[in-house]
Amino acid sequence: MYTSHEDIGYDFEDGPKDKKTLKPHPNIDGGWAWMMVLSSFFVHILIMGSQMALGVLNVEWLEEFHQSRGLTAWVSSLSMGITLIVGLGSGMAYLPAVVMVGRYFQKRRALAQGLSTTGTGFGTFLMTVLLKYLCAEYGWRNAMLIQGAVSLNLCVCGALMRPLSPGKNPNDPGEKDLRVLPEHSTESVKSTGQQGRTEEKDGGLGNEETLCDLQAQECPDQAGHRKNMCALRILKTVSWLTMRVRKGFEDWYSGYFGTASLFTNRMFVAFIFWALFAYSSFVIPFIHLPEIVNLYNLSEQNDVFPLTSIIAIVHIFGKVILGVIADLPCISVWNVFLLANFTLVLSIFILPLMHTYAGLAVICALIGFSSGYFSLMPVVTEDLVGIEHLANAYGIIICANGISALLGPPFAGWIYDITQKYDFSFYICGLLYMIGILFLLIQPCIRIIEQSRRKYVDGAHV
Fold first, then answer.
1. How does pLDDT run across 188-243, given as a tens digit for each residue?
2. What is the C-alpha to C-alpha distance for residues 122 and 115, in angstroms, rounded to an integer?
């Protein structure tokens, strides 16, 4: 299931005597790769930044409709959840933006992902300020219309994305030009039989006469056969495309449900279990903090510098710094990833204990920095399943995050409706998050125990 990072990103080049040598792709770790980072950066601004700023609109919806907090939170959570689990709307741009950066980088993959995903922090800060201004000036309905118009810039981001140029292998049938004629084509028949004699006789035919002219000079039997050549070419093309589609479906089926299924990787399954609880602990503060500061009578201080903006700004530095640290040769990406998760869980447990703006600001800064581990998720996923399964595997992880984002904010709202406090929602989400982390830690221990047991059994048989 594991693949070497050096096995990807190379093109075949034809050398002397038809020998194939490998050369690095010019766009790996440079060139157009940085345009991919820029495009992904703006995708994160327009998608994730806008969604993380929905707490501003959540306050407006509570005042407008006078519904329970649990019911009102569904509006924000559905926006985030549908993006990550269904693949509609923003989801059609978000996942490719993440996966494409991973395909264009090898040595600087963690740094590139960190730089591109800092758009979430920039977007949250910018969209929070923009939405507050628009809601104050034009109302929340017109603010959403303007925000939708701004989101049309996703089309520009998509235009910048393009796949790596495939290698050209002359021995690969899939790389051959579809215009090559079948074995029994007109050109092959020319070399023998009646057509050869016709060419010797009329010499000047060849390239100047069309296929229809040649057919008119041949015997009736061969002329009838020649009329079907275009149809045969089309059938050959359709047959080839059908085989490619069938092979792609078989690969997809085996990848999800067959012997090569991603779900046979128990560490990956543990990673999915972790993702089901992790994202809600990050999303809940963004949705409910604007109302929490109102309950604590901290609105004036929060209007000067919103707590969600603190999370967003420090989140930017967290992604870059954690990405740089994870790229160091002496540092394990998994250790950085787990340490950041423990810091985030601790921050979630402490947040309800803070009732001053200064205390909440410090905890929000810790949440922002530790949540920078999101830039490491594609790298960690690739380490688990390999680059060839990265798109499918990361899509599954994003789906699990989407379920977490879908259920987290309404759950926190329901807890408030019952207890008239948000404290218990943070405690429960933090506890579930901790269980997910422990589940990740247990899997390597189980694997070590099984390997030791297998060695012992093999030794006993010997």
1. 434 444 444 444 444 444 444 444 454 445 555 565 566 667 777 788 888 888 88
2. 11
Through-space distance between the first and last CA atoms of the chain, rounded to whole angstroms: 29
Radius of gyration of the chain (CA): 29
Distance CA(374)–CA(113), nearest Å, equals 9
Tens digits of per-residue pLDDT, 397-441?
888 888 888 898 899 999 999 998 899 999 999 999 999 999 888
Rounded CA gap, 355 and 351, in Å?
9
The structure tokens 């921050």 sit at 347
Cα–Cα dist 90/127, whole Å: 16
CB atoms within 10 A of CB 121: 28
Count other C-beta atoms under 10 Å from residue 220's C-beta.
8
Here the tokens at position 74 are: 């569904």
**Contacts of residue 318, Cβ cutoff 8 Å, sequence gap at least 6:** 340, 368, 369, 370, 371, 372, 373
Residue type at 379 in one-letter notation: V
- Single-letter amino acid, residue 404: S
Residue pair 51/123 in contact (Cβ under 8 Å)? The answer is no
Q: What pTM does this model have? A: 0.65
- DSSP letters for 379-447: HHHHHHH-GGGHHHHHHHHHHHHHHHHHHHHHHHHHHHHHHS-SHHHHHHHHHHHHHHHHHHHHHHHHH
- With beta carbons less than 8 A apart as the criterion, state whether 397 and 269 touch: no
